[in-house]
Design brief:
Elements: E1 5-10, E2 14-18, E3 32-36, H1 38-48, E4 53-60, H2 63-73, E5 78-84, E6 93-97, E7 106-110, E8 132-138, H3 146-161, E9 165-169, H4 179-189, E10 195-199, H5 200-205, H6 213-224, E11 228-232, E12 238-242, E13 245-249, H7 262-275, H8 280-294, H9 306-313, E14 319-320
Parallel strand pairs: 1-4, 1-8, 2-6, 4-5, 8-9, 9-10, 10-11
Antiparallel strand pairs: 2-3, 6-7, 11-12, 12-13, 13-14
């Protein structure tokens, strides 16, 4: 790929199939179809906020694979994709059934043996890493197969050798692996990570870290020599640690229409602001604003603009440094 790239992400994107709100999967006669995947969600959010973003993955060379590409490109994301034989590979899907209390929202995954589970670095346009500022992936990707775990490690290492800042969102998924297995895999990757995003809950339950968010950030930075650690705390906001300094950010109030993808929007807002030269505190503020805005939008993708974020940031709330 020619030209300077701000952000490269790597991971699986699936098709999300959802019945209309209030209907059940077992009785609905219609399904809404959208693309969704943690790393492509981040690429879309960052691209919509002004970053030049590229998404790496592997897809079946089929109408479903091309549907994913078309949707991501429509939001300004460039794609570096390996195409697989549709006769021997497939695209993962997931079914999302929205439900209010007391039923709640239900997610059913159908992603086994997806094309990405066979991806190798040689199939991807890794030259894009040489001109990138950031490389981002998540803890979902190495859980998909031994091959994706190996490729994740190789790409993180290559990004480091190219002087690229490497960010990693823990994004633990209990439906993919148990905490003990996940922790061992994550800790092997941490030597290749510069910026870590981790929910406080996962830091405690998966990484076995004690204390509040500030103590967790200090402990992880000390143990694994991260440049930056961002610990999210749900409705309590987030904290970031860099160069020994702690930054705190509250949440911006939002009417929740669809919470799926909120964490990815947070990361996208953070990375977009850092890529634009923003300091840590400003990046956290953009992250919180992007996350709040995403909750008002249906689907996985944060269909937002810089003006949207600025209007939230300039309103009530803000950063407590």
């Amino acid at each position: 790929m020619v030209g300077v790239t701000d952000l490269v992400t790597f991971g699986e994107t699936m098709l999300r199939l959802s019945p209309p709100r209030g209907e059940r999967l077992e009785t609905t006669e219609a399904l809404d179809v959208q693309a969704g995947g943690a790393e492509s969600n981040v690429a879309v959010g960052a691209a919509r906020l002004g970053a030049d973003a590229v998404w790496f993955s592997k897809l079946p060379d089929s109408p479903l694979g091309r549907r994913v590409i078309g949707e991501l490109r429509s939001h300004g994301v460039r794609t570096g994709v390996a195409w697989a034989d549709p006769e021997t590979s497939r695209l993962g899907t997931y079914y999302l059934e929205h439900g209010g209390e007391p039923r709640g929202t239900n997610v059913i995954y159908d992603r086994a043996d997806a094309a990405i589970t066979t991806v190798t670095p040689a199939e991807l346009p890794t030259g894009a890493l040489e001109s990138a500022d950031y490389f981002h992936t998540t803890g979902i990707t190495p859980a998909l197969s031994d091959r994706t775990a190996e490729t994740t490690t190789t790409l993180l290492r290559a990004a480091g050798e190219a002087g690229v800042t490497r960010s990693f969102d823990l994004n633990y998924r209990a439906k993919l692996w148990d905490p003990e297995t996940a922790r061992a895999a994550y800790e092997e990757l941490f030597e290749h990570v510069d910026t870590l995003f981790v929910p406080r809950r996962d830091a405690r339950e998966v990484l076995d870290r004690e204390g509040d968010a500030v103590e967790i950030a200090h402990g992880l930075a000390s143990a694994f020599d991260f440049e930056t650690v961002v610990v999210t705390r749900g409705t309590e906001g987030a904290v970031a640690l860099r160069d020994g300094e702690i930054y705190e950010q509250g949440v911006f109030e939002a009417d929740t229409h669809d919470a799926i993808g909120t964490g990815d929007a947070f990361v996208a807002g953070y990375l977009a602001k850092r890529l634009d030269g923003g300091e840590i505190g400003d990046a956290l503020e953009w992250a919180a604003a992007a996350a709040a805005l995403k909750r008002t939008v249906d689907g996985d993708l944060a269909v937002i603009t810089p003006g949207d974020v600025e209007s939230v940031v300039d309103g009530p709330g803000g950063i407590d440094r």
